[in-house]
Specification:
It is a lipid-anchor; GPI-anchor. It is found in: Cell membrane; Secreted, Extracellular space. One of its GO terms (biological process) is cell migration. GO terms for molecular function: fibroblast growth factor binding. InterPro entries: Glypican. The protein is mostly helical. It has one domain (about 30-144). About 65% of the residues lie in helices and about 5% in strands. The protein has helices at about 5-15, 30-40, 70-130, 130-135, 135-144; strands at about 50-55, 65. Helix 1 runs antiparallel to helix 3. It starts with 5 loop residues before the first helix and ends with a helix.
């Protein structure tokens, strides 16, 4: 099982692609990221042709980068959905266990209620006689 959804890796790739060349101020092409972004199912049209300033970005690097706000949003949404899917998959076995335990407990508790109702109807008429018979509706309401 992977610990990080693919979206996190996409962010890592975006950060890697934004790394500046040593000693160069020339804007680099974003074609490599455009191909990767398109391969992940996103529209490559939102990837800029060359690096842009990322001062406004919240997730991608804030220096010169090939990442845009729309790409950040797409990355975040994909990461969220992949994470939720993996979380559901990972917790499915726990859910199955809880459901089985719930059914076992519910069956056991219903059995106890039925036994106590039977014991009440078997014992109370002989012990309390007319007093019980006058109030039998109260005892029936107790178990309904």
């Amino acid at each position: 099982m992977r610990f990080f959804p693919e979206g996190f890796w996409l962010l890592w790739v975006a950060a890697t692609c934004s790394a500046r060349t040593e000693g160069g101020n020339k804007a680099r092409s974003c074609s490599e990221l455009r191909q990767l972004y398109g391969a992940k199912g996103f529209s490559p049209n939102v990837v800029p042709q060359a690096e842009i300033s990322g001062e406004h970005l919240r997730i991608c690097p804030q220096g010169y980068t090939c990442c845009t706000s729309e790409m950040e949003e797409n990355f975040a949404n994909k990461s969220r959905s992949e994470f939720e899917g993996m979380l559901k998959e990972a917790t499915r076995s726990v859910q199955i266990i809880f459901t089985a335990q719930y059914k076992n407990f519910d069956g056991y508790f219903q059995d106890l209620l039925n036994k106590s109702e039977k014991a009440l109807y078997d014992t109370f008429p002989g012990m309390y006689g007319d007093l019980y018979l006058q109030n039998v509706h109260l005892f029936k309401d107790l178990y309904s």
